[in-house]
Amino acid sequence: MTPTANQPMNLLLAPPSLDDFIRLLKAWRFWTLGALIGAALGAALYVLAPPPYRAQAVVNVDFNLESAFPENSDRQDFYYLEREARKMVELAWSDEVLESLGAPVADLRGGALTLAQPAEAGWRFYADDAHPQKAAALASAWANAFVERVRAEIRAGNLNEFIRLEAVQTQNLPVKRSVPLSRYLLVGAFGFLTFAALGVLFVKPK
Fold first, then answer.
1. What is the second-level CATH architecture of the domain 53-177?
2. Whole-angstrom Cα distance, residue 25 to residue 11?
3. 82-101: per-residue pLDDT in tens?
């Protein structure tokens, strides 16, 4: 049969055969070496272009449901928590709070800051920066500015008076890379093996 222009495309779209999978399994030495090569590439990328440092500050938030609603109901609790927490999240990202941190607001909103677990108990305030000291100072300043702003709103009557906040972790903050080395190793190894497997499946031996 005379080959046509569509045959290479048909080979690519054809499902792999049992022989293809057997060839994959037999090449265990290649997969082991490939995993090591991929992990080494991931480690090299981590060294050459490391992720920023990340610091975490913690503010404990107590909504005092028992005081706010003595005759407790699940519906009231949910609405109260959702409403007040949403207001406080908006305050955390407000211009007034971010402008007090001494950094461009666009950069802060563009990924330098991250707020996690905005519910009752510990709110996590994360800050990323290329320098660990700056990351720690930024996270601490953000958490403290948030506490001051929320307390001002409580005094003004814009938030429930029973809400209590305490900055429980704003000094000597733990600082580490925002992405661990292990993730670079895993992604590098998995990525290399994925491309290698595609090459083995679609490049037929002569």
1. 2-Layer Sandwich (3.30)
2. 21
3. 888 899 999 999 999 999 99
